Amino acid sequence: MDYGEEQEMELEALESIFAEDLRVVSPEGDEGVGQATSGKCFAFELSPKESEDDPEPTVVPVRVLLSLAHDGDYPDAAPVMKLRALRGAATEDVDALRGRLEQEIEDNLGMAMIFTLHAAAKEWMVERWSGEGDGGRQAAKEEERDEDGLTAAERAAKEEAERRRREGTPVTPETFAAWYERFQAERLLEKAKKATAAEAAAAAAGARSGRPTGRQIFESRGAAGAAAKKGADSGGGNDEDIEVDLEGDGEAIDLSALEELDDDELAALEAEELDIEDDEG
Question: In what residue span(s) does the RWD domain sit (predicted)?
Fold first, then answer.
């Protein structure tokens, strides 16, 4: 077999199939197989999409670079192959795909196989990421989000956190002692706050008790008015003062004293009278 001729014939077939999508690269370049080869080197950027017009089947686009090169006695010998994840594919995914292609190489020795390897890689990626097969269904399940926007893994983590909150922290002698110490400290602090508030209220009440009540102010002004009235009567004054028995106890109060009260004193008197009415009611 003329291996060079076989390789040239396969190159022509690949150019016809892939047209502009066929990328012939340097075997030692960035997209090559990482070593010098005697024949051509091809690079294919693969995705799980059935065609370029199909929507991306994964949340994060998946891209894998497959590099294949003719060398030596190919196709009786295996082509040189290199796989790299460009985006979205984990190391274990690349390793699994490599294993699949190595099996394809073994099954196709003696035949031109570049197109076959390209098709097998594409098929495996569709199964893995597009839901066609167990790998794809598992990947789709991992990416599926519920009505709260959570993946299965995120939902499981949330449920575990909620379970721990419901169950709480297991009680041990150490955790109980720590809790009881905090509880006692909180109780002492609350008692101290209440004692401080009570002392402040008592001090305020004592300060208020030193001030005359509204009635005391009124009666003192009334007494002063009565004394003035007597002086006016002895001097022959003609002003008439009105006296009213407010409580029906026979004690008349000089209403002229009201005129001498300021607003605060009137308010105090009114408040006191209202308190008296409430008590009597």
Answer: 9-128
pTM of the model: 0.48
Q: Measured on CA atoms in the order 116, 120, 122, 123, is the torsion positive or negative?
A: positive
Same domain, 224 and 132: no
List beta partners, residue 83: 66
Counting beta carbons within 10 angstroms of the beta carbon of residue 84, is it exposed (0 to 12), middle (13 to 18) or buried (19 or more)? middle
CATH number (domain holding residue 36): 3.10.110.10
Number of residues that make up the chain:
281
Domain boundary among 114, 143, 172: 143
Is 48 part of any domain?
yes
Among 143, 168, 185, the domain boundary falls at 143
Asked if residue 123 is part of any domain, the answer here is yes
Rounded CA separation 160/147 (Å): 18
Segment 274-279 shows an average pLDDT of 51
Q: Hey, which of 169-173, 229-233, 249-253 has the most confident mean pLDDT?
A: 169-173
- Tokens 């008590």 sit at which residue? 279
- Distance spanning both ends of the chain, measured CA to CA: 125
Q: 3-state class of 264 per DSSP?
A: helix
Cα dist. 217→221, 226, 231, 242, 252 in Å?
Answer: 6, 14, 22, 19, 16
Domain count of the chain? 2
**pLDDT tens by residue, 145-173:** 556 667 777 778 888 888 777 776 667 77
pLDDT average, residue stretch 129-153: 59
On the question of pLDDT at 35 being above 90, the answer is yes
> Is residue 102 situated within a structural domain?
yes
Amino acid letter for position 4: G
In a shared domain, residues 242 and 138? no
Q: Are residues 28 and 133 in the same domain?
A: yes
Strands (E), the chain: 23-25, 41-46, 63-69, 80-87, 243-244, 253-254
